[in-house]
Amino acid sequence: MTRTAALLGASLLALASPAFAQSPSASAAPISVPPLEYTHRELANGLDVYAMPDAAAGTVTVTLWYDVGGKDDPQGRSGFAHLFEHILSRKTVNLPYGQISTLVENAGGSRNASTGQDFTNYYETVPPQYLETMLWTHAERMARPVVDDAVFQAERSIVQEELRQRVLAPPYGRFSRFVIGDNSFDESIYRRSVIGSLEELNAAVIDDARAFHEAYYRPATATMIVSGNFDPAQLDRWVDQYFAGIRNPDRPVPVFERPLETPRTAPRMVEAYAPNVPLPAVGVLYPGVAANHPDSAALDVLQAIMSRGESSRLYQALVYGKQLASNAGFNANSMEEDGSIGVTATVARGKAMSDLEAALDIELARVRDEPVTAAELAEAKTELVASDLRQRETASGRAFMLGQAIVSENNPRAPDERLAAIQAVTAADVQRVARTWLNDQTRVAVRYQDESARPAGVPDDSWRNPAPVPTYLTVPAAILPANELLPEGRRMAPPAPGAVRAMATPRVVERTLPNGLRVIVAKSTDLPIMNAQLVMAGGAAADAGQSGLASMTANLATQGAGGRSAPEIARTLEALGADIGGGAGADATTLFLSAPVASADQAGAVLADVVQRPAFDAAELERSRTRTVTGLTVALRDPGSLASQVLNRLAFGGAAYGAPAAGTPASVGTLTRDQVVGFHDRWWRPDNAALIITGGMEPEQAFAFAERTLGGWERPSGAVPTLPNRAGDRPAPRIVVVDLPGAGQAAVAAAVRGPRRSDPAFYPLAVVNSVIGGGQNGHLFQEVRAKRGLSYGANSSLGARVDGGLLSAATQTKNESAAEVVGLVLAEFDRLKTEAVTDQAVTDREAFITGGFSRAIETTGGLGGVLSDAVTYGLPLTEVETYVGKINATTPEAVMAAAQAVGSDQAWVVVVGQSAMFIDALRAAHPDVVVIPSASLDLNSPTLGL
Question: End-to-end CA distance of the chain, in Å?
């Protein structure tokens, strides 16, 4: 018997925040947040089904959440729930390996899965006509998965590469995943990392996987959420058809008796060391609370006060004020059964770790000992509500908000109740939870330094928690027969797509203000949020030999303007629930402003000052310089980031596009205030700019906002500056290895030149790129990951630039397999020159591209980005309407013709890693390979210092 109940939020939630005393003009108007709306029913087999229909959506999202996660990993098998997430996504009795991804991408959709401590989820977003198909694939995975040795071995290898890429390769991967993770909990079910360890993944066998599925995957442990454009009655019929007949196994789900934790009663210190750490990091860890704990809302507010935005306490004290840290964060992490609090910071260049620790302790003591101000309290509440509002914009965002509430709090009403609870938090509540949970008798202090600082005799695992790890369950062996892929003639075909549901194309309107500013408006949502992007031609290509100048100008403009200091700008905007930022790409500088519609004019006044009256204060330049150099230093120790920068320099040499857009530590170190002012005066002008407004404003309302905000921006008398060809002549192809000591993985990147974005040749080459490396059905993903398990992912992209970008491929692999992966990548660059692509394959790849485009323009930010690109690259605004048709016009013949521009003989290749582990094999295939130590690399030089 099924039961159905309509569950709607009680009312439209609203938050009004009092003004800051320092900024009486920044009084925040109420922010209205529509409640989550859904219906719920439970099938007789225990499957919970939540429906969230939205007739205005252009897609439908299907998510299935299983009540199994990292905390359920068997004894000696850490990382197993995550490994099984990979296994379950691959093969069923009716679907060959990888066919689920093929179905989704050929429908123009996207899919993925994730594992947390409390859950594993699987999800797709597709055009509405494919809803039945997606439901059927979920039923296949729940009831009829194939777990054979080929799947098991492949996915284990892939997960190990994911661990290397996420944990071992980044400079601070071990810090966040292993050191913080192991010391946040003691005798807790949450002690182990969700991603596991290479050793315990190696110890797993196929019988473990079959037993795990039989133990935990069943209707009674699953929650389905369907959100978007669909008929609820039809959804009920399909759910009954595909899921009602799935039986739960006779054996009950294993129950792990929770270990009794010994409370911490004394502080302790962890000293950790790892390779490839450019700057030390510090942390302070405390026990936290479960997601449904009464203190959860107050801790959310405390977290916002401490580290949300540039007006937060940790940023102001440690990063901005004393400049002891390059970043600092406060994270109250709450899960279903427990939680933790982590406060972390990275030491700024030239600063002492002990000074940062002392300053951090002062801030933790201050929030315990003194009440937060009314202004801080109001700002934190407004920021939290505004963030929540933005997540509710899309059907998929609402689905994930609901799913997280169900798995973490067993309460679908929790998101709306959380907003009400946040509004009720007082300053006394914040101080109370700070005193309760930031208890120095329970703290664990952490230091994380480079391997070179390790004292003699300190063991490799000095970071490990001395508390005993709980003994976890051993899952009973599977007793049901293993499934096998049926012969092709006996397989059930996926349901055919249904009738196409119309998707409205956003209406784009444009006006030009008297000062020459283009104003482009497209309403994208009924939610009361708005997004404004100011796009100015020029960008990093206009740096004129001082790389990083355009980027520094955009960043510095928000750090003091119109008589407001940087902290005052941050306080003003964050009190309004607004956000501002900027940056420079190769061809344009962009500023963005996001705000609730009710606060748009007040936030717009700040934007007007930032654009027209930036202070460019010398002290702010030094602060920004220090933070930027620190960030660049860290990026240069990350294999993937470094490979991308070296590849760009190889491909464009001494041309404007060749210089790093963000600069280098050396180039940023010599920037002057006069250069920044000069760049602003030359390029920041209304007749060189377009203001793009998307979100919940009606067109006339948006045009009026633009006039009030930037109508007074004066146009200079001189002509708008122009740039010569930014791409330059093509340097000779070459293969370069950057030897990066301590790199936990090798990054492989390769590229060839592509056409200008405005060139009609861009569209067929976009299809070529999709065949080579788009999504999970691209050749690269299939050859490198799916068939060989050499990487977590391997993809290609076609970059858009005014004077021509790059078609580039990128992947990461263990150092030992770098040479093999280089060969695979270059083979794919050559493949389409001679191998014809079928009509159906071209159609499928076109659907993948256009599906991604359609999903992008469904969101406020995505639509703004598409319009921003049109402005930057000189495309008509009708590109929003015509892009899909241009992609779909590509024929197999056009694909082969476009592919002639791609080839290994034209490619630049970069490998960053521990060269001793792969150079001999690479040199055997490519005798001309050049090796350069990372310490000798000069990104400011067109020749890289070679």
Answer: 74
